[in-house]
Amino acid sequence: MDVSHNPFIQTAANYSVVVLFLVIFLAVFEVVTRYQNWVEIKKGNLAVAMATGGKIFGIANIFRYSIAQNDSLPQMMAWGLFGFVLLLAGYFIFEFLTPRFNIDEEIENDNRAVGLISMVISIGLSFVIGSGID
């Protein structure tokens, strides 16, 4: 039996890789934001929950496109990593384009409007990034 063409094994492999990358990428976001995601979420900070949820959705969506467009696990991983780098760049661009206030500070202070915009930016960019994945 050729395991490389077994859809159950391929699905399990894709799932495992995406969960691992999701944990790693969320750790990277934890480092680049000034607030602690899980501490703030535990306190009930809805703005952080929305921003983090958008990041999770964005990363998963990028990998969804990557899985759909690539037959090999290494290619899927490479495109997923590239997509994450672009999503991370989008986060820094959002911060740069709002010089009147600090995005991280607003989200940490539970500014839900900023949390919602952050979530929508992550989700929106993930579709744009995903559409370019070969």
From TrEMBL:
Organism classification: Bacteria, Bacillati, Bacillota, Bacilli, Bacillales
Topology with respect to the bilayer: Multi-pass membrane protein
Transmembrane segments: 12-32, 44-64, 76-94, 114-133
Protein family (similarity comment): Belongs to the UPF0719 family.
Organism of origin: Fictibacillus terranigra
Keywords on record: Cell membrane, Membrane, Transmembrane, Transmembrane helix
Name of the protein in question: DUF350 domain-containing protein
Source taxon at top rank: Bacteria
Alphabetized InterPro entries for the sequence: DUF350
Localization per Swiss-Prot or TrEMBL: Cell membrane
Family matches, as PANTHER family: UPF0719 INNER MEMBRANE PROTEIN YJFL
Principal cellular location given in the protein's record: membrane
